[in-house]
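Structure tokens please, single chain.
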Amino acid sequence: MAALDALSLRLPQPYRDLVIKHQELLRFAVVGSITFVVNTVVFYGLKWTILEPKPVSALAVAVIVATIVGYVLNREWSFRTRGGRERHHEAALYFLISGVGVLINSAPLYASRYWLTLEEPHVSALTQELADFASGMLLGTVLAMVFRWWAFRKYVFPDEGARVVRDAEKLLKADVRARSASE
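Here you go.
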């Protein structure tokens, strides 16, 4: 992930300033891209095998797996300077908000399959797959991403700079202990 930071240093000045100003959003987007790949691989792996007759269940499982990966990456990279909550509260809120995200992510696929009946035998297999991808993987993911971005910043990682302050306090305490031990 340091490659992204190094790349931003090579950008021309106006773009570099823009990247620095929005680096948290860009990191969130990179994490989102990684979790999108995880989500897609797990979704189609399940949908084409053990959960073939249950595409909404396959998508829900895929989103849950991607959410776990996303928590680790978002906490340690995207929102690494944010905090303000104890870790167990932070994790509980993250997964609660992500649960709402699973529902938001699954809603367009559910509507496509069961309200619009874009499934076999009503439509061709190709049309079904394209509708599943467009509704579940694209539309659902975008809607859930917008919701998660807003909710993570507002509720899960509300305080900007909180972890930087905590890390600085830990370093200061360690320095004080080291000095008193050497005296």
